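Check the record.
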Amino acid sequence: MTVSQKTNRSENEAANQEETVLVEEQETQASFEQISHETTLFAEPIFHFGNFTITNSLLNSWLVLIIILISALIIGKKIKKIPSGIQNYLEIIFEGALNLADSVTGSRQKSLKFIPVVLPLFFFILLNNWLGLLPGVGSIGFIEGQGAEKIFVPLLRGATADLNTTLALAILAVIITHIFGVIMAGAWSHLNRFIGLQLILEIPKKVFKEKEYTAILVNPIKFFVGLIELVGELAKVASLSFRLFGNIFAGEVLLGAMAAIFAYILPIPFMFLEIVVGLIQALIFAMLTLVFLTVMTTSHEESENNHQVVAH
């Protein structure tokens, strides 16, 4: 083999190596380009436990529950008759929550009954709102998919940015209001708030004994108003769930858009804005639940009397 042949051979090998490296770089670049991630309306599934799907928003809500339980256990063990340290601040928060509840319920007795339901609900929503802003939530995950399409799936996602979570919270809140209504106002009184059987049954008495002939028209109208209130219960669920979901999901999309424009400084003001929004939305949800509890635990006759007093 001559010197020129050896030179040509070495040049061909070098060219082949360069082509191989170039092809590998192109394949690597193509694989990175094919990985996509978009903010979805639904929570992405992480794994399955039988027929039960575990999503990233569900994992986030479990993490919040663990934080609340551990905090409650630690605080419960350190409570003393004479407060000191952090217990002073916790008592200030609790007293402020009671005073705020008193302004809605008008009764300290009712406030003491409702606070054990409303306050944990407030902290659960607040921590879920804020946990979605932490680094790693929404940015740490895994890649799944086959072939050309590959999708990045985050391990954790803000639970309140998932409509399933907010809908479950809204349904739970409305159900709790009805449970308290049955316990405190009575099952019959609570039923007649929506299905006014009492109004229909008392028509003969008012017409023939009390000579109140307007009851023939007024009571059926009140009966249909009760049916409208029954539809209003569905509106409560929709209002609570969509308000919370819409604000938190919009904030998640906003932060993603700002990070895509300039990831270092631009998102910071919007993160502070989302901290405030998370606090306000948790407070709105808790206060509306408290208002619904107050309304449902007031007997229908008492509420009518209060409206008459205000009118006079």
User: Anything to note?
Assistant: The chain has one domain: 45-311. The radius of gyration is 30 Å. Confidence is low (pLDDT under 50) at residues 305-312. The chain is about 75% helix and 5% strand.
